[in-house]
Design brief:
Blueprint lengths: L6 H7 L5 E4 L2 E2 L10 H15 L4 H4 E2 L9 E2 L8 H17 L8 H13 L1 H4 L4 H16 L4 E6 L19 E5 L3 E10 L8 E4 L14 E6 L5 E5 L24 E11 L3 E4 L2 H9 L3 H31 L5 H26 L2 E3 L2 E3 L2 H26 L16 H10 L7 H15 L2 H12 L4 H11 L2 H13 L11
Parallel strand pairs: 1-10, 5-8
Antiparallel strand pairs: 1-2, 3-4, 5-7, 6-7, 7-11, 8-9, 9-12, 10-11, 13-14
Helix pairs in contact: 1-2, 4-9, 5-7, 5-9, 9-10, 9-11, 9-13, 10-11, 11-14, 11-15, 13-14
Length: about 500
Amino acid sequence: MNVGKTGSAHIASLRDGRAVYIEGDLVGDVTAHPAFRRSVQSVADLYDYQADPANRAVMTFEPEGGAGGPVGRAWQIPRNHREMRERRTALTRWAELSYGFMGRSPDHVASALVGQRIGLDVFARGGSAREKAFRDYFDYARSNDLFLTYVIINPQVDRSRDWGDQPDDVVARIVDEDAEGLTISGAKMLGTSSIMANEVLVANLQPLRPGEEALAFSCALPMNAKGLHVLSRKSYEQHASSVFDNPISSRFDENDAVLYFHEVKVPWERVFVHRNVELANAQFHQTPGHVYQNYQSQIRLIAKLKFLAGVARRVTETIGTINLPPVREKLGLIAAEVGMVEAMLDGMEIAGEEQNGFWVPNRHYLYSAQVTTQGLYPRIIAAIRELAGGALIMLPSSERDFANGTVSDIIRKTQRSPAFDPDAKVKFLKAAWDAVGTEFGSRHLQYEMFYAGAQFVTAGHSFRTFDWSECGSLVERLLDSYPGSGAATAS
C-alpha cells in the first residue's frame, strides 16, 4: 500500500548537490552536517507522522484522480467549513510536533500555493501560458508532497530607494530571456527552512511600481538549481551544548538564509509571472494566497502559545509561587489571551466565504489576529521572564556537570523545588530558557514580531479589510436621530 511521502524519502531528496554555505564552508551533505542534521530529522519526523497508519486518515487525503497516492492535507483545498476544519486538525498536529517553533514547516508555503490556486483566474491576466504554468506546477508539487520554501522579500540595502533603483547585483531580477526561459540574478530573503526544502518559490510580497518590470516575476526552482547559492545564518543547532541543555534549538532550528541567484535559468513552464508589475503585486493579495499562508501561521502560533502558557504555569509550580494571588492573576491573563487567539481562529473559519467553489477564511478576522499576536507574543515572553525571576539564570553550565560528583551534589542541594526533584527542575528550566532567553529564543521573538511585516504593514491589511461602512452608518444613524444646533427645539 502506498503510504505517501516518508521521512527517509525526504532526507534522501535533500542529498541533491545544493550549494549551501555556512561559516565560510560549502556544505557537502546538509542531512549530515552538525548545523542542520537534527532539524532535518525533525522535518522527516513530520512526514513519518503523517505516513503512520494510525495517523494517515487525519493527516492525508487523495487528490482529485488519486494520482500519486495520499499526500499531506496541507495541499487540500477546502470546499467548505468542514473540510477546512479537517485540514486545520492535520496542521495543528504537525505544529505540535515542534511545539510551534518551526514556523516554515512544509505546510506553510503549501498553504500559500493553495490560496493562489483558488485564485487561478488572477494568473490568467498574464496570459494562458502563465496560468497553465502555475496550475501544472501546483499539481506537480502536490502530487509529490514537496516541501517548498519561499523568498519573497528583497535585501534591506537602502530603504530610502525604490527596489528598482538598488544596484543591479542586489535585488533578484530578470537579466536575460530566450525561447527556453528566463535568467535571473540577484538576492532574495529570508529563505527560512530553505536548507531542508525541496524547492523554492521566488516572488514579490513587497509592492513594485511601473518601471520595475525586470523585478516583476515569480517562479519555482529546485534547491539544487545551477547558480543558486544558499548563505545560512549562524546555526543555533550547531552551537547548542546538547539536547538536554538546548532541547528546542538543537532540534527545531529551521534556519534562515539569503538566496543568491547567479545567472540561474528558469524554464518557461516554471514562470508564473513575467515582467508584469500588476500581477506581481496581485499574486498574494488578489488571490487568497496571503490569507491562507497567514492562516496557517495562526494555527502554528496557537500551538506555540499553548506551549508557552504551559511553561509559564510550570515555572510557578517549580519555584512555589503558583498559589500567590498576583501570580494566578498573571497566569489567568495569559490563559485569556491564548483563548482569545484560538477563538479568533475559530471565527475566521466560521465567518469564511466561498471563492471559486472553495472556502476562504475571513480576511479581516485573520488580519485582526495577526496584528494582535504581534504584540501578544512579546508580552507572554516578558510575563514568563517576570514569573521566573532568577530561576532561569542560575542553572548548571551543562549536563556534564552532573557527571562530576562534587558538582552534582551541590546542584541537587541548591536546585530543590516544592514540586519536582532537582534533576527534573534543571531539565525543565533549561527548556524554558531555550524557549525564551537564548539566542534561539531571541530569534523567535523577532520572528513573531516581524514575520508578517512591521506592524504598520499588518495594521494596513486590517484597515483595508475592515467594514468601515457599517461603523460609519452607525455614526450617521446617531447624528440623524436628533436635530442639529440650528434647529428649533421644543421648550
